[in-house]
Amino acid sequence: MRPLIAYPLSLMFLALSPACGEKHSLGEWTAGAGDPSGETAGDPSGETAGDPSGETASDPTGDPSGSTGDPSGSSTTTTGEPPTTEGNDPCTQYTDLASCEAAGCEFVGGGAIEADENGCRWGEGEYGFCASFTGGSQSPALHCTPDGVPVAFPFDPGNLPADWGPCDCETQGLALDCYGFAVNVEDLGCGALSTHCESLTDEASCNQFQGDPGLNGCLWVETTHEVAAEPVCNAEPPVGRCIPVHLRHDGGCFDLNPPAECDPGDAVKSPYWGRVSDDVAPSVELELLDDVPCQFEPLGYFQCWADEDSPALCDCACGL
């Protein structure tokens, strides 16, 4: 087993309770340099990536093509009405942490998400709202400020002020997709990140769009089109392309079990596979990313040899 192992994100959700924050109680989570988690990179989802085997993906069909949907796993990010504070809460008049706590209220803070030419980043500044009481779901969530800034909360507040609301894919799509993987949704919430990465046609510009660990970005990879025919593995040169990826914190690799026939040099690779279309089974034809560095998790792909159902064409990464 390799020394660094990234565990599925779904196992980390219990660590996301605000009670685990900077020695504050629920709702007193403060935003330090845009980091709602207390980690140096500001990932409220935890330090590890999701499950590349597809077992915890939101799409039970195993479709790695990506689709539109809710990047937070709740109805408060792109559609629907968010929960609001009931009645007239006197604490809502305070707009910053200091005045909020001085009034005996609780500040519900999170980290702003930004996207620029250098990738996805945690924004500077203090974002949140003041309330007389706090509470809500343990799952992380995305909501937009009255000014339309996407904010990632380490838990989903149940008393969101009325002037906060859902984020709009049309205006905040790229920023929303910067965070989509962190809430255990492998499908790209708005599709903006996938479109952006595909538009970058050279390695330098593609790899430049990588920001803070724990968020998403782009990566230049080499891909081959594998077909279950003679010869089984494609001898054509790989094709370079830019794909969306999740940027892990520690770069740990999964403990894989490549075929015993693998050459030792090939056995340490981290290959991924993806469908060529919904109508073609991966046992017949697939797209193979031969070797992906451990600090990246391709979005919309599945890691080879992660389980016993891994397609046989994955073995082409061993030169078989």
UniProtKB/TrEMBL annotation:
Q: Which parts of this chain are annotated as the region Disordered?
A: 27-92
Query: Which stretches does UniProt call biased (Low complexity)?
Result: 58-90
Domain of life of the native organism: Bacteria
Identification of the protein by name: Uncharacterized protein
Q: Which organism is this protein's natural source?
A: Nannocystis exedens
